[in-house]
Design goal:
Helix content: 25-40%
Distance between the termini: 82 Å
Number of helices: 6
Number of strands: 5
Shape: elongated
Strand content: 5-15%
Strand order of the largest sheet: 4-3-5
Radius of gyration: 24 Å
């Protein structure tokens, strides 16, 4: 086999390998950043950004927050909630809490507040401790309505909009 033919074959193989990797990357990114549910399990910002963990907290860089916005779309800037602006761990339109179905026949404990009440995902929060405590969970269930960046006015408005949905709630404001 001539040298020229070998170089041609090697070039074709290399081009095919590089082209395949390039097309795979484009396809992966297209699916990852689309609205399809196909790769939901891979839409975790920590997988693609650096973060520094310590015992008390996780500090994330700007790439984490950009990906968090792209993957989870927590704030709808184009059409914010008409009363509250952005929302927390509850549905945007109905204001039903994500864990509202877990209350069942227990007395709901409703926690309203700002980012201190809301907590962050990387640490155990109030609801993580109380809703896993056997004595507490027998008769109660904590729903955390805390939202980062809320002022007293937004917290009060959220309370007024959601408190009547529950039977005899205990409110922590």
């Amino acid at each position: 086999m001539s040298t020229r033919k070998r170089l041609t074959n090697i070039s074709i193989v290399m081009f095919s390998i590089i082209g395949t990797f390039f097309l795979s990357e484009v396809l992966f990114r297209t699916i990852l950043f689309s609205d399809t549910n196909l790769l939901d399990s891979l839409r975790v910002p920590e997988y693609y950004s650096d973060h520094i963990k310590n015992e008390e907290d996780a500090f994330y860089n700007d790439n984490y927050w950009k990906l968090n916005y792209l993957f989870r779309k927590p704030i709808n800037f184009e059409s914010p909630h008409p009363l509250l602006g952005w929302t927390g761990k509850f549905y945007w339109k109905s204001l039903d809490h994500f864990e509202q179905d877990s209350v069942k026949n227990k007395r709901p404990i409703l926690l309203y507040g700002d980012s201190f009440a809301m907590c962050i995902d990387s640490v155990k929060c109030f609801e993580d401790y109380l809703n896993h405590d056997k004595a507490f969970i027998k008769n109660h269930f904590l729903l955390n309505y805390g939202v980062g960046g809320y002022g007293v006015d937004q917290i009060y408005l959220l309370l007024n909009e959601t408190v009547d949905r529950f039977n005899k709630p205990f409110i922590i404001f």
